[in-house]
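Changelog-adjacent note: as of this version, every example in the card shows the full chain rather than a window. The one below runs 133 residues end to end.
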Amino acid sequence: MRTGGAPALGVGVGFLAVLLTLGGCGGSGSATTAPATSTTSSTAPPSTPPEDLCTRLVAHWSREVLDQNTYGDYQSMGLSNGQYDILIKVVDAARAAKKKQGAAAADQLIDRQARSGCVRWYRDGGPGEGPWQ
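Full-length structure tokens:
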């Protein structure tokens, strides 16, 4: 003998009724459809321009690579091929500056050249269609 079957069915039907009332299955124009609101623009964080993200990545990895004899794999750094090209130029210049003028000068050079390289790269179109661009 089964006991308690009817109450379980009643709870399921009651739950379905609540869903229908809240608009889970309401069609277009039904009384349960809530109007769309435009609140996402006020709650979404501001987006960071791609040249700023590029600058941060290139500057970070330039500092990491500065004292090494190798540049490493650009994909493991999260860089595109274009960003990696900027990094190579920045690190080469920073190594020369560090030798002649010291670590502080190299650090400042990294910030300047990473920024100018990324701004120029995005002004010229930025990454291409392929993931490596």
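Structural remarks: Residues 61 and 77 are 7 Å apart (CA to CA).
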